[in-house]
Amino acid sequence: MRTQVGIVGAGPAGLLLSHLLHREGIESIIIEDRTRAYIEARIRAGVMEHWVAELVDEIGMGARMRSEGLRHDGIEISFAGQRRRIDLNALTGGKSIMVYGQQEFVKDFVAARLAAGTPIHFEVTDVSIHDVDSDGPSIRFTDRDGAPQEIVCDVIAGCDGFHGICRPAIPDQVVFERVYPFAWLGILAAAAPSSDELIYASHDNGFALHSMRSPQLTRLYLQVAPDEDINEWPDDRVWVELQTRLTQDGKWSLNEGEVLQKGITPMRSFVCETMRHGRLFLAGDAAHIVPPTGAKGMNLAAADVLVLARALARFYRSGATDALDAYPATCLARIWKAQRFSWWMTSMLHIFPEQDPFARRIQLAEIDFTTGNEAGARALAENYVGLPFDDGPVGA
Ligand code: RFL
Ligand code: PHB
């Protein structure tokens, strides 16, 4: 097989990249090691930044997101027996976030790519990449019928997530990493959301988050130990702990319902520098991971591939490689700001093991300032809705 851009991974990064390239008249082929049903059901992110929702509209993919997604103009933060609202809309000059499940985004983009004739090879195995130092790199794999295949292309986009095979092909990489001493236990429940907005709660027992997927589905998270055994968390225990951590004002209670899904996610900050070697470009979780507290992971993946698609369009139009050369620096400027925000939200809202009362008082003061002072609230709001999209290195 021969194409212009060979894309490894059909997550949000790979699918959006393929769509953006198609709009520029650039061909791509996607390979994915899971089944279509699996990637369309995998429950992960839920929050899209303002500019991502606008981009989805601009590229003709917004119809279902606008009808089924939930636009939120604020979030709430609960601490020390009270709850305060951050008015995202008022603090950012009219911006908001879109709560729309990542798996819905994936469904919409898989359907659009296939309808446009872009090949997506699902259930591939033995994936390897070759000759990334040359002008004709290739991707080899075994297809789902067991036949060996090769895609020869101009460029490989490594969109294969944190555990993919592309990142190891970057030589001399420098890795920056923080592993947090806790994890999130997440459930999806058949219950109407108990509030119109997301609630981030910092409770002495640990962090909790109330989110949602639809008017009938609530998504909830609890801070647990990093090595927590999920069998220790039968549904009743999960509900008791959620009620305790989220209902701090005593006037509100959480709607309960059947638990449809339950899982534990470790928390990590990770950045691989650099994101490019020769004709291989990493994008999304393949290059970086953020803890989910800032809701930034999927949005960073979208930012990377927008930069990459524009740089490739310029390359194919004019042969100029300057934008491709600048790709890592352009992306990393935004990535590190999102890393800082995600680390800060995580540090402010979670209880750390052996945390002393001084550290807890400092956290509570920081939440009080952030939710009670306009400058504090605006700093949170601007980061949460997404910093202005900056298609160039800081200061350029
Ligand atoms: P993905 O989604 O991991 O997709 C990578 C794809 O590559 C495939 N793959 C391969 N394919 C072929 N060959 C190989 N050798 C392959 N190896 C892997 C995988 O099967 C997969 O389909 O990465 P991508 O596209 O970079 O997207 C990143 C996002 O998925 C991720 O950042 C977010 O889910 C993170 N995240 C959140 N992000 C947000 O923006 N807002 C949120 O509210 C939010 N909440 C979350 C989250 C992640 C969570 N978990 C489970 C990690 C909440 C949770 C609980
Ligand atoms: C979610 O709805 O899954 C979600 C929302 C906000 C976060 C993380 C996850 O910060």
User: Helix content range of the residues, please?
Assistant: 25-40%
Tell me the CATH superfamily of the largest domain: FAD/NAD(P)-binding domain
Bound compounds, each kind once, are: 8-demethyl-8-dimethylamino-flavin-adenine-dinucleotide, P-hydroxybenzoic acid
How many individual β-strands? 20
Distance between the termini: 39 Å
CATH architectural name of the largest domain: 3-Layer(bba) Sandwich
| Main sheet makeup | 8 strands, mixed
The residue ranges in which pLDDT falls below 50 over 5 or more consecutive positions are 392-396
C-alpha-based Rg, rounded:
21 Å
Q: How many domains would you count in the coordinates?
A: 2
Q: Provide the CATH topology of the largest domain.
A: FAD/NAD(P)-binding domain
Structure commentary:
The chain has 396 residues and is α+β, with helices and mostly antiparallel strands. It has eleven helices and 20 strands. It has two domains: 5-46 and 101-174 and 273-353, FAD/NAD(P)-binding domain (3-Layer(bba) Sandwich), CATH 3.50.50.60; 177-267, D-Amino Acid Oxidase, Chain A, domain 2. The protein is 36% helix and 28% strand. The strands form four sheets. Strands 6-5-14-15-16-13-17-20 form an eight-stranded mixed β-sheet. Strands 8-2-1-12-19-18 form a six-stranded mixed β-sheet. Strands 3-7-4 form a three-stranded antiparallel β-sheet. The model is unreliable at 392-396 (pLDDT under 50). P-hydroxybenzoic acid binds next to loops.
